[in-house]
Amino acid sequence: MSHNVTRLALLQACNDLLQPARFKDYGPNGLQVEGTDSIGHMVSGVTASRALIEAAIGAKADAIFVHHGLFWRGQDGTVTGWMKQRLQLLLAHNINVLAYHLPLDAHPEVGNNAQLGQRLGLQVQGVFGEQNLGLWGMRADGQAFKNAQALADVVSIVLQREPVVVQTPAREIRQVAWCTGGAQSYFEAAIAAGVDAFITGEISEPQAHLARETGVAFLACGHHATERYGAPAAAAHVAAQLGITHQFIEIDNPA
Fold this sequence. Notes:
By secondary structure, this protein is of the alpha/beta class. The chain has 2 domains: 5-101 and 229-247, NIF3 (NGG1p interacting factor 3)-like (Udp-n-acetylmuramoylalanyl-d-glutamate--2,6- Diaminopimelate Ligase, Chain: A, domain 1); 112-226, Udp-n-acetylmuramoylalanyl-d-glutamate--2,6- Diaminopimelate Ligase, Chain: A, domain 1. It is 36% helix and 22% strand. It has 10 helices and 13 strands. The protein has helices spanning 7-18, 50-58, 81-92, 102-106, 112-119, 148-159, 187-192, 205-214, 223-226, 230-242; strands spanning 5-6, 30-33, 38-39, 41-47, 63-68, 96-99, 122-128, 134-139, 164-166, 176-178, 197-200, 217-220, 245-248. It has a 6-stranded mixed β-sheet. The protein has a 5-stranded mixed β-sheet with strand order 2-6-5-4-13, sandwiched between helices. Helix 7 (187-192) links the parallel strand 10 (176-178) and strand 11. Helix 2 (50-58) packs parallel to helix 3 (81-92). The longest helix is centred in the C-terminal third of the chain and has 13 residues, at 230-242. It is elongated.
């Protein structure tokens, strides 16, 4: 049976799980918008968009847990336009917003990278990249993928979208590196780790050339698509620990 907990208890449980103080990040982790002090129902989602906020209001949520919060380094700090609209809804309905960016990517069990690896049947063997956010490993059954397209076929089934693939068709894929979201800049570190393929959410112009020149396949599988799993996993864990209810709300995003 569910009950209500305080905002502080929820925040403490999230911080204990995700350890945000360990990370140098692009925005504030933790409580971004203060709402009601009594929390019985939490909604999770990928991004604190207006669509998610409106859905959370409809679900009578007391708190929203997201990967992409409202505030980022480099914003001009004004509360106008879309920012005003989001904040106006949150404050009018007294809803808390908790956001965890890199800490949610990195958690070894409920994090975005760990959750994606589990779904793709990959067993972690090591880490790479800035702040050790990237993971690399092999299929849990020890088998190799025949080539990059065979890996892409698995990705498309799991994520329900076709990845952009830059590949060497004849190369067997045994070691795979991955880092969700906009981690295309991690490609060189993945190459240095000695892998055969790299999975992330986005691709920029340089990565296509690097993939062709090094023979390491690059799979861009969607920023949102690769980061759908951490927020609900972390929120469900905390909700179960505290005895509150939780639901994940998917707001589709083609990016």
